[in-house]
Structure formats: structure tokens, C-alpha cells
Amino acid sequence: MQQHLRTGLILIFLMGVVGCGSFGKDFDANMVQDIRNHHTTKTEILEWFGVPFKEGTEDGLEMWTYQYDQYSLGSTDSKDLVILFDKNGRVKAYRYTSSIDDNK
Length: 104
Prior knowledge:
Elements: H1 2-18, E1 21-24, H2 42-49, E2 54-58, E3 61-72, E4 75-85, E5 91-98
């Protein structure tokens, strides 16, 4: 009987550990509203959000991605900011999506 109880507690613990986690790097989304196409610079983006989680290129232009996904039993919260820079190092376009209430 005690062996079953111990096994049950271990399973519950493992489900909690495996069922929770995160991916990416959390970032403060409050400054997203201040991004201006053709105006905001790479330096400003670095100051506001830090080093991007991923870097790449699209059509020869530099692209930075800020991503954070948090998993818990039964739910996933995520926020993603993708920024495309022009040849002069200014924001050409960006996209922000979130399932997290940023006002908390």
C-alpha cells in the first residue's frame, strides 16, 4: 500500500514538472507601442528589448525575433515580436502577437 502511495506521489510530481516550462526569452512588451516604421533604430530596439532570441534575413533584410512561450498544464501563453530592418538599420516593418495580458 505504501509503495502505491509513493509511486502515485512521484507520478503527480513528474506530471507537474513535465507539464510546465518555457521556451524563448521573456521580454518587456510595453515598448512595442513606441516602435515606428522608418524611424526606430536597431540601437533603440536593443535598448528596449535586449538581444533578440533569433536573428535571420528575409529578402536580404535583417530580421530579429523576440519570442516567449510559457507552458503549464492545460494552457500556453505566448508573445512574439518580429522586426524587419531596412538597409539603414531602421525598422521597416514589425509584427507583435500575444496571448498574454501585457497589462498585468
